[in-house]
Each structure stands twice: as C-alpha cells, then as structure tokens.
Design goal:
By secondary structure, the protein is an alpha+beta fold. The protein contains eight helices and 15 strands.
Length: 262
C-alpha cells in the first residue's frame, strides 16, 4: 500500500504521498491559513512560480500559458475560471483549494509534468480528472508513467447525497447507462467492486465517496491500482487539521499543490 506521510513546514503539518516523491508537493492543512499560493510556493521551491484558479466546480483544465491568456476571468480577483491546471514548463507550482472536495495531484515520471485538480462531485460528474489525464496523453505522456494522489476529502460514510447526485457522479463509470433512470444507475453502481456508493437509511438518499468515483474513472483510462493512491484522511471527521464545508458551513479552504520539474 502506498504510504502517506505527515511533514512539517514552518511548524505547520501537511501531507505528502510516496507516489509523488519525485516532486515538491503537499496537501496542506488548515494551519497554513491565511497563506495563499503566491506565498506558499517559495516555501516549497524558492524559484518556482505559483498558480491558482477561480474554481467554479467545472471541468476546465488550463496550462499556465492558458491561465495567463484566457479572457474568462473572475472580475473580483482577475483569476482564470477553471478547476484544473497542468504544467507546460518547469518550476511551475500548481495549486487547488478544497474543503470537502477532492484535491488531486498528478505527475508524469518521465517528463516531470504535473497537474493539480479540484474535483468536487460536480467536477467529477463532468469527468475533470479524465479530461486532465487526456491532456497529459495529448502532450505525449504514457499511462504507465502517470501517478495520481487523491488528497484528504470527505469520506463516503459521512457524505449523504440525493439519488440524483449519486447517479450523476457514477455515470462516467457506467456510460452504457446514459439516459437511464437515476435509480437504475445507482443500483448498478452499488454492484461495482469498490463502489463509490454506500447504502443510506433513507430510500431517497445514498452515501457517496467521490474519491472512489475518481479512482474508478482513472482505472477506466487504464491506470493500474499501484499508480493511484487515496489519502486515509477525512476532512469532515478531522477538524483538528482540515476545514470542512459540510461540517462548518463556512467557506474556508486548505491548499494542495505540486511543482513541475524539467
């Protein structure tokens, strides 16, 4: 099993994953607040430039060059609207913010290229992690060289959603059921090995583990189990280290990021 490790930076704890040991990276805790990527990046690599996005729960993935040139920007902070960033050069620090959503960091062991993705249930239903991997492949990456770490997020055992949401998130794993009733999609998803869904005591609700849904999409692309790792930490159940929107109903986030190498 891939190991996750607690590290300390400036006295604050954060997580790293063995799969990404070739890169400077971190899944930060709430203790780094209120620092933002521009301040955090040089703590990991002095000469690196940090990039962040205006996350909108979609499936758009941009390179730093595209981030700089896009006209689709948030008027309040001038950040590009997207939920994923993929490097197009060395020493680029890519960061995403999350509270209960999945922070996903990806690296190509051959090229040194990396990506950071914010995958909540909406982004996962739209296949943002799949889109990101396809961007790697379009740039010349090979599946056997990609490694993926899915960071702390809300655990399925404590994440109750509607049947409709469960069906939307699982449909990318079951494309043959496109157009079917949500209850049929949920029933089929429950029968999957390592299903993203867990039963709920209410018949109109289901428990959803978005991390497993993203793993399922990656496996459909051909990534083997040993190239994917999920952090054994739940943002909802570990208030000492993580913000959780579902627990607190406040818009507070922790950052996760990775720095590309040449």
């Amino acid at each position: 099993m891939t190991n996750w490790h607690w590290q300390t930076l400036n006295g604050h704890p954060y997580l790293t994953c063995d799969l990404l040991q070739e890169w400077s990276h971190g899944f930060l805790t709430r203790h780094f607040s209120p620092l933002e990527p521009a301040e955090i990046t040089p703590l990991f690599q002095l000469q690196a430039i940090g990039y962040q996005l205006k996350q909108v729960h979609g499936s758009v993935v941009l390179t730093p060059q595209e981030i700089a040139s896009t006209v689709d920007r948030d008027p309040d902070n001038n950040l590009a609207r997207a939920d994923g960033a993929i490097s197009d050069g060395p020493t680029q620090g890519l960061w995403v913010a999350s509270a209960d959503c999945n922070p996903v960091l990806i690296g190509d062991r051959q090229t040194g290229r990396v990506a950071a993705v914010h995958a909540g249930w909406r982004g996962t239903a739209q296949g943002i992690v799949t889109h990101t991997v396809k961007k790697f492949l379009a740039a010349g990456s090979q599946i056997e060289n990609l490694v993926v770490a899915i960071g702390p997020a809300i655990d399925g055992e404590v994440y109750q959603v509607t049947i409709q949401v469960g069906a939307e998130v699982c449909l990318p794993m079951l494309p043959r059921l496109q157009g079917q009733d949500p209850s049929e999609i949920v029933a089929a998803a429950l029968a999957l090995e390592n299903s993203p869904l867990l039963p709920d005591e209410r018949p109109d609700r289901i428990r959803l583990d978005v991390r497993r849904a993203n793993r399922g999409q990656l496996e459909l692309l051909g990534l083997p189990d040993d190239q994917i790792s999920i952090a054994p930490h739940c943002t909802f159940q570990e208030p000492e280290n993580f913000y959780s929107y579902r627990r607190e109903k406040l818009k507070r986030v922790q950052w996760s990021g990775i720095i590309s190498r040449g």
